[in-house]
Specification:
Aminopeptidase; 2 domains; globular
Amino acid sequence: MAQPLAITAADTEFCEATPEQRELAWKLNGVAWARPVSIETYVAREIHLSEQELTKDGNCKYWVLYLKGYPRQIIASCETTRKEVLISENGVSRGGYGYGIASVYTNPDYRRQGMAATLLRHVQEAMDRDSDLSVLYSDIGRQYYSNLGWHVFPSEEVTLTYIPPTSTSSNETPALQHTQPESIRYLRIEELRNLCDVDKRHLCARFSQIPADGASHVAFMPSFAQMSWQIARAEFVAGKLLNGKSPENRGAITSSGRAWIYWDHDWKSKKLKVLKVVTVMESSPQQRINDIRVLVEAALVEATTWGSGDRVVVEPR
């Protein structure tokens, strides 16, 4: 491996990326992240995602650290998306704003010199001007971001794999595959906005009941903007990999309307990701268990139908 080009923070400049710098950063990180699509397709996807309800009109900002005097020489980059949050402290709940940080990447030519840390310290200062908090999800362990000031919270991932029942006849089809479970119906994208609003009202009601327990409680607001962004990303990739085909089911809801689930397809990893499971407050514990069971079964059907490796991934967030 080639030695990185030696620089210090004094050799760098930080700014909100210009359109040209954004594309240069995407081409850089696309070398690592674009597969199974080409870098050109990956850049087109990122442009498409920057124009969604969640990200347009400056709601998502793209940041770069570049070599002083050479704005095209990108050293490190990331993006931050501003979202509504709920905060409860000392028994009092209020609304606020928080940032989700994503796509932190350092040009391989400048790694192991603290450049990502330099970038993120600048980003922290920018976020602190108009938000209450920020969050990111690390795939490089806990220590790095903890050293930069983020508190560590465990985020467990559960992977469910469909195992067909043993068939007594070679002509029989496994009961689950391609069969809609009873007691649910599938959701289309046009239904999600109203469900996100219902979820938001229930979350606000829950936060209003949190007692003064000495702890700070935080939740990102459910939003159609977030869900539709996830769907837009999956749809774009599906259009490239599946000859224009794309799933219509965006989740499922129980026939009682007490609970529902949102999901999207991760075509790169061949898995179905559960974005959220919602159960309303009026449900009894046993009702919630039953509702979650049939909703997860619906997700397994979706995974097998679209060849997502028969895997459903639940990431509690």
